[in-house]
From TrEMBL:
It comes from Arenibacter echinorum. InterPro entries: DPS_DNA-bd (IPR002177), DPS_DNA-bd_CS (IPR023188), Ferritin-like (IPR012347), Ferritin-like_SF (IPR009078), Ferritin_DPS_dom (IPR008331). GO terms for molecular function: DNA binding; ferric iron binding; oxidoreductase activity, acting on metal ions. It comes from the Bacteria. This is Starvation-inducible DNA-binding protein. Signal peptide: none annotated. Residues 18-156 form the Ferritin/DPS domain. Keywords: DNA-binding. Belongs to the Dps family.
Length: 159
């Protein structure tokens, strides 16, 4: 087994970089959808939701940077074109969403998809003894589970 300069198996690090690039692509599309609903939301809840969506896209933007930097730390190259993001992502795309419930449902669907990817990366990073990636995924999962719960509560739906 060949180790990289941070003490991780080179082969497992390359595999994790690939998985993290998939997460990066999905986060970029999620971020763009959040920007769109932030800009286009209408209705009586505009002020509250406009601020909440800004909070969410700011957080997503920070996570995008963290993911890209982790890919680099593992020796990979982060995806960085819209073409790459479209090709490597599954999160739903929100287009011209103006209604509050549609926006919240899009967020829940997107986070649910991100959580699936993050749990798979968590398992792989655990197997690779990659505490850096493992810790990042644990933090993301904890935050996003809470956001899903809050969004579902706002919709008056069960988790």
């Amino acid at each position: 087994m060949q180790l990289n300069s941070i003490g991780l198996d080179v082969t497992k690090s390359k595999s994790l970089s690939k998985d993290l690039n998939q997460l990066l692509a999905n986060f970029q599309r999620y971020y763009q959808s959040l920007r769109g609903i932030h800009w286009n939301i209408k209705g009586k809840r505009f002020f509250d939701l406009h601020l909440k969506f800004e909070e969410l896209y700011t957080d997503a933007n920070l996570k995008v940077d963290e993911i890209a930097e982790r890919i680099l730390t593992l020796g990979g190259v982060p995806l960085h074109t819209f073409e790459d993001y479209i090709e490597n992502s599954k999160v739903p795309v929100g287009k011209n969403i103006t209604k509050d419930e549609d926006a919240i449902r899009l967020i829940v669907e997107s986070l649910s998809e991100l959580l699936v990817i993050e749990r798979a990366i968590l398992d792989a990073s655990d197997e690779a003894s990659d505490e850096g990636t493992n810790s990042m995924m644990s933090e993301f999962i904890t935050q996003q589970e809470k956001t899903v719960w809050m969004m579902k509560a706002w919709l008056a739906e069960e988790i």
